[in-house]
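Milestone M4 deliverable, item 7.
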Amino acid sequence: MLLPRRARTIVLTASGRNSKPPGTMERPNAPIDAVALARDLIRCPSVTPADAGALGVLEDVLAGRGFACERMAFSAEGTPDIDNLYARFGSSGRNLCFAGHSDVVPPGDHAGWSVDPFEARIENGLLIGRGANDMKSAIAAFVAAATDFAPRLEGKGSISLLITGDEEGPSINGTIKMLGRLSERGEVIDHCVVGEPTSQRKVGDTLKIGRRGSCTGYLRVLGAQGHVAYPHRADNPIPKLVAILSALTMRKLDTGTDHFEPSNLEVTTVDVGNPATNVIPAAARAVFNIRHNDLQDAPGLERWVRSVCDAVVAAQGGTYELEWVVGGDCFITEPGSFTGLLSAAVADVTGQAPEFSTGGGTSDARFIKNHCPVAELGLVGETMHKADERVPVADIAALQAIYSRVLERYFAADGA
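Output delivered:
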């Protein structure tokens, strides 16, 4: 199964600890122990936006095995400063990238954990800790696979790693800006594998080839405050808000497509904030989220929502305010040579090809898809973001084996 070659040479400028040419080995090294690396990463409490040393752990490992490492720090007004890491082995040929995030969500109440969430304890064959599932173990697996395979590249191409510290946060100063910097200097990623925990029951049973889009509406309906005994002297916004939400939720957006589930709108909060029983409030608020497939798009959905709001206030009076936020565009990597290669690599290790899926929430693949074909392949996501987040140690080894087969197939003698 061959993929087209992009003939070009990239000159990298590495910063940080590694200043030698990419694609050269300083000295022989023992293979990376993915489980040990995952534990080292978990012990760094890198709750967004803190790095807590996680990128340094990765940089030390990668730089010592010939990867050119570059820290990419970004900031923006109103958002926390974020440190990110880009590493590459090789400077020409096709560039296969593994992408992931080193930041994690807060552990919550430590009393809900059976162990310290940042101890990285192994019990009964399970690695327990915040980030074990989402997604430090996957990072460890693809770092181990990449560093093991890199000496065998022999000029056939390049392996890169794109690690952000801003996936669980605003996602403003991470992947999207890293990709922009690479584009500015003419550096191309040809294909990307994101290590999100996408499997359902066992490692490799699901390959995510796309995601539904996400839009959030922040709706505020305005009226006039007054006494409930004199409703003619007030303008109650609540019935209007109820009418708008009823119209929005009653519509069936679509029935889905071959690759996508039906689009759906869900109301996530309704808030009046009125502690008095004898006062008509001046405003009522609601928030709703739409997850949509490729039959819809964000501008079209916004026009529909506004038309519903317009119709209600035209009939009942009052005004409204709507803030529309697009969290991610719908996308799909059409089944073809790249997804086929990934599927075959999984089958090589597990004996069964994965199911293609577009379900679940958003990920940084929504940014990567604007630069190259991308798919997501990682651990079983059952415990991500939960107390006692955990992963079987054997699953980390299985995922490393899958990533190794991806590299072997991608850079096969006549396929590079």
